[in-house]
Amino acid sequence: MVKRFRLNGPKGEVRQPSFKEDLMKNHQAQNPQTTRRLRLITCAVALAVAFTASPQPLAHADHVTPPPVPSNIQVPAGNKAFLEGHAVGTQNYICLPSESGFAWTLFGPQATLFNDRDKQIITHFLSEDPSATRFPTWQHSRDTSTIWAMPISSSPGGSGAIPLLLLEVVETEPGPTGGERLSRTTFIQRLNTSEGVAPSTGCSLSTDVGKRALVPYTADYFLYKEEDRGDDHDDED
Length: 237
Description:
This protein has two helices and ten strands; from the N terminus they run E-E-H-H-E-E-E-E-E-E-E-E. By secondary structure, the protein is mainly β.
């Protein structure tokens, strides 16, 4: 038998309770333990949402720590490393006449430098500085600030590897919008080199003149600045 309910309205009118009415009755019929559980779940959800929405403190960049190096390529006192880049690229050679006949001659690197998160930060190549003198060049990948540096000392690398270098910055140029990420650089070290040496063959005849060889290499570059310079951009992201 279907149970019917009489509601206020015209005489004799009967109908089933609505879904909303059933829901309200069920809610009112919940025991205290169920209600307490629902309140705890609601509080937990609210706390989770609040934690997710709250700004978290940013992690500070680790200090750059170059490895020990031979004394002749140590950076002068008063400078500190502020940026490290892991380079992957080529050392580029061309076959030219020499005093002894013919020889492979370096005409510049072409490399990309990455940070510890494998994000590109710098490109490295050979170019003319503002005075039209060609020097090894580093250009920041974000603000395009550019520096030119001259090698002042070297030390042998490992077997089959190009030398370690100490370079001094001779010219700087801000990016087109005033970027100066690299403009404070004073010295650069090229360390942990691998491969990149000139070929041992292929440049012995006059017909070889003009040939080019792009030799893969890797290295770590450490950029230095004066110790009293600010650290506004040390966190390269």
